[in-house]
Design a protein that fits this description.
The complex is a heterodimer of chains A (323) and B (270).
Chain A lengths: L2 E12 L2 E12 L3 E5 L6 H8 L7 E6 L2 E2 L4 H5 L2 E4 L11 H11 L4 H14 L15 H13 L5 E5 L7 H16 L3 E6 L2 H7 L2 E6 L2 E6 L1 H8 L2 E7 L5 H12 L4 E3 L2 E6 L4 H11 L4 E6 L4 H9 L18
Parallel strand pairs in A: 3-8, 3-9, 6-7, 7-8
Antiparallel strand pairs in A: 1-2, 1-4, 4-5, 9-10, 11-13, 11-14, 12-13
Helix pairs in contact in A: 3-4, 8-11, 9-10
Chain B lengths: L18 H21 L1 H27 L2 H34 L1 H6 L7 H28 L7 H28 L3 H17 L12 H9 L1 H14 L4 H29 L1
Classes of the chains: A alpha/beta (323), B mainly alpha (270).
Chain lengths: 323, 270
């Protein structure tokens, strides 16, 4: 079996809103697919269909060769879901939450307890095992959520925005956990709004916008396709702004944008940076900031769609999710 | 099995849960609801305080005026207060379900290979335990206040059983409401709007004979009246078969209408 997850033509409407408009996805077994898109793009809807929580209006999907509608019960035996909306019980302790899931899976009590202890230790929650989950910090909560979806040792793991709202330290911890799981052979489909997260974790990225997949490829391919990285120059003295503007315009052959005292221009060739430095040095301009930034989701989106990722996220991603 | 050994679930899992497994899963989920009380003892106080208040207030504040003596009133009213409290208790089912759905616990459960009906059944099962607790509490407090059961143990158990059966049917209304509103508080608001008239326009607190005729008409058909009569009969003597039969008919009717509606709303929502 080459693809652990395969979806063809998935469509879903909620009243007037088209959440998915013919989505094709494939996740090769043992790899990570990053579903990248802004709020309201349809990422959560896709995950909910693939995890059997929602029926598609059209199209079909398989997990490990099993249809997510016809063989829903069997699919549930193979997957784990950690999502914005799939949560642990706040009133129970960490240990009880994992015990509950083990017992629901039919594990004998002793085995369920052992597995709970194992996971709590693995996710650095052993000390908090007997505290109610509502007392956990955001990072701990997310780790417990993830542990809960691993009780069954799933083959395919769905992570719906696993790091949204986490502090940078917890994000990096979470990334490491995901890498360890993949090293153990788990296939992962993760949704994210952050290009750097997809870049860090995903073997392949599918960019979604308005319920459609608008681009797929490896992170490197995608960045190459969308090309531009932002070049940022801020002179120490704002009176130098006109000179900086003309230098950047000359070197990059692109029209720079001025915001405050910062000049930004899209650059496709990183080799231009030294040229900018030389020219500014010749003109004796002191710079407070000069950088070639990593392309963000915004740049990727701008390159692919001509609009910014953030500008029309008025359709909430929660559409169709019980609120 | 120290780390994440990739011993995967078997592909050859059965196409659905067997009924017995569903039953065990429901019990596990009932356990989950009840163990919450251990971590939040306030919840126990929460569903114990209202019956205690009603029993004390009605007996000692209104009892003398209504029945001439508080002892006579207690004998008359305890059965009704048990019924009233159990109907209010059914709101817990709806509030709990709505909380699970809003907080995402339901998605987690539904993504597991368990019987589709077990989260619902588990919730209702746990609420039956709470119901039994509240009934025992009312009987115990009543006994301390001077209430005497004038029948026998089987009759008391039958009263418990009858109230539980009715509450279980009635809780489907609560389930339906909880699937139609978007926050737990609204279940309570709706519930109170229905429960207060339903339980007060009955013979739970006062005999219907003092009410105006048009109101008496409603009191006579009100299932709360029938159930209170039956429980009263089972605890302190009096006709049982008629009101108990009527209560069971009402329970069957409510179940027949609201269970399918609730299940349909449930499927649409989750």
């Amino acid at each position: 079996m080459n693809n652990a997850v395969l979806a063809e033509g998935l469509a879903k409407r909620f009243g007037e809103t088209t959440a998915l408009d013919g989505v094709d996805l494939a996740v090769r077994t043992g790899t990570v697919l990053g579903l990248l898109g802004p709020n309201g793009a349809g990422k959560t809807t896709a995950v909910r269909i693939l995890t059997t929580l929602l029926r598609p209006d059209a199209g079909h999907a398989q997990v490990c060769g099993l249809d997510v509608v016809r063989n829903a019960h069997q699919v549930r035996g193979l997957i784990g879901l950690t999502g914005q909306y799939a949560s642990v019980d706040e009133m129970l302790t960490g240990a009880e939450n994992l015990l509950l899931i083990g017992r629901l899976l039919g594990h004998p009590r002793a085995q369920a307890k052992r597995r709970a202890r194992e996971l709590l230790a693995q996710f650095d929650l052993a000390d908090a095992a007997n505290r109610a989950a509502k007392t956990y910090s955001g990072g701990m909560r997310r780790r417990l959520d993830l542990a809960a979806s691993l009780v069954s040792r799933p083959r395919v793991l769905f992570l719906d925005e696993p790091t949204t709202g986490l502090d940078p330290r917890s994000r990096i911890d979470m990334w490491q956990i995901v890498r360890d799981l993949v090293a153990d052979g788990v296939t992962v489909l993760l949704t994210t709004q952050y290009l750097d997260e997809a870049d860090q974790l995903a073997h392949e990225i599918a960019v979604v916008d308005h319920g459609r997949v608008i681009a797929t490829g490896t992170p490197a391919e995608l960045k190459a396709r969308t090309g531009a990285q932002p070049l940022v120059v801020r002179p120490a003295d704002t009176s130098d702004l006109p000179i900086v503007l003309s230098v950047v315009r000359d070197v990059t052959a692109a029209e720079p944008v001025v915001e405050g005292s910062t000049v930004t221009a899209a650059v496709t060739d990183p080799g231009l940076l030294p040229a900018v430095v030389r020219r500014l040095d010749d003109a004796r301009v002191l710079v407070a900031e000069l950088a070639l930034r990593d392309a963000s989701l915004d740049e990727v989106f701008l390159g692919l769609t001509g609009h910014r990722a953030t500008e029309d996220s008025d359709e909430p991603e929660t559409e169709g999710v019980p609120a | 099995m120290t780390t994440m050994t990739p011993t995967f679930g078997t592909v050859a899992a059965p196409p659905r849960s067997r009924p017995w497994e569903g039953f065990v899963q429901s019990l596990t989920l009932s356990w989950r609801t009840l163990v919450q009380i251990k971590h939040n003892p306030m919840e126990l106080i929460d569903f114990s305080i209202q019956p205690i208040m009603f029993l004390l207030l009605f007996t000692y504040v209104f009892g003398g005026a209504i029945a001439g003596s508080t002892d006579d009133y207690l004998t008359f009213a305890l059965a009704g207060i048990i019924v009233q409290n159990s109907l209010f208790g059914t709101l817990n089912t709806g509030v709990g379900l709505n909380t699970d759905v809003t907080k995402g616990v339901f998605d987690r459960l539904r993504a597991l290979p368990i019987a589709r009906w077990s989260p619902l059944a588990g919730r209702i099962g746990a609420d039956m335990v709470k119901q039994a607790w509240a009934m025992a509490l009312l009987l115990g407090l009543g006994a301390i206040m001077g209430f005497r059961v004038s029948t026998d143990l089987p009759s008391v158990l039958a009263a418990f059983g009858l109230v539980l059966v009715f509450a279980m049917a009635f809780s489907w209304i609560s389930v339906l409401v909880s699937m139609l509103v978007n926050e737990p508080e609204k279940v309570m608001i709706f519930g109170f709007a229905v429960m207060f008239p339903l339980t007060f326009v009955s013979n739970v607190f006062v005999p219907a004979s003092t009410m105006p005729g048009w109101l008496r008409g409603f009191v006579d058909v009100n299932p709360v009246t029938k159930l209170a009569d039956a429980v009263r009969g089972l605890l302190v003597g009096g006709p049982v078969a008629g009101p108990a039969g009527a209560s069971l008919l009402w329970a069957a009717g409510i179940l027949a209408i609201f269970a399918p509606l609730a299940v349909a709303a449930f499927k649409r929502r989750v």
